[in-house]
């Protein structure tokens, strides 16, 4: 077998061992410099447009990460009460917060309105609900679902018609009329049609979809659209052979599309907003775990002290995450392993039939591209405890930004101090 394809890491075995010595394993480690550079490149690419990034909190909900995001000039996109609370604690307020939720509880809307967040309304029936719970703002965004299949150059990229999010074309028109009557002065449009797109054409096509809707809204309701929110959907190269998205080509195509349509249709040039969680933190977060068992039956198994409770994407979606055996980066991949965790579920596997160097008990492995929807999707099945998070600073030092859970944390919600619940 040939040597394993490599993916670069922002730390080495020595650094990982130093962190492990302090806090144990498993742990997440994030690259402060990498995150800041990703934001810088994004802003530079879209400099010709009136652009603002609203980092999707759900991708990596840690106040230290959000503070880093804020220091680099971004807003945040929140989807729940606690995400709003975290955003407020980190100093975000007003138009620096986009609130994109669905099946929204009343208290979430109340806090979003108190913070002055831009409400991204998912459902036409939420208009009355929002009016009673927080009130109708003067600025609002409407989430659009065009239905059917979403295609680029004839290829199906997603199936919006099967998604629970957003309003239909007719509902968007009706919502504009209702909200104008209730005092809304500034409107935006949002849509999310596909996930983890690696081509450079996705946002161009999405921009076209939203601008076509903008034209129809103006014609039929005399409503001007002030901004479009292209949401997320831009992917990252999880596999070594994947080619990264060229964000400069994406920005140029969006700019050209906006200029062409706005000149042709005599539209106001809209502001452009986005919520790129995966793109900003995904490549700059890694799950580090220790090999604690080896098992040889019908396959060769490597057992880690991490499991799907720490990173569930491979188990849930069958997603590929590259694995580096620290200290063995230059050794040939002469073994084929399933890399597993200890959950009582057979899908608790980080890799299946993966070619890797020969692994020994005690080795550290790095599971790449876990900086978005990694720790954030963790859970406590089997009583597993969520691990620590560490920020690797630009100066080479590292900072604990979330300690590992303890059994006391797990049992804390059972402590009712003897209170009796009477039915």
Compact summary:
By secondary structure, this protein is α/β, with parallel strands linked by helices.
CATH class of the largest domain equals Alpha Beta
| Backbone structural class | alpha/beta
Largest sheet: 9 strands, mixed
The low-confidence parts are none
Q: What fold name stands as the CATH topology of the largest domain?
A: TIM Barrel
Radius of gyration: 23 Å
Q: Please give the alpha-carbon distance between the first and last residues.
A: 65 Å
Total tally of structural domains: 2
Please name the CATH architecture of the largest domain: Alpha-Beta Barrel
Counted by DSSP, the helix tally is 12
**Approximately how much helix is present in the residues?**
25-40%
Number of strand elements: 19
Beta content: 15-25%
* Global mean pLDDT: 94
CATH superfamily membership of the largest domain, which one? Alanine racemase
- Can you tell me the overall shape? globular
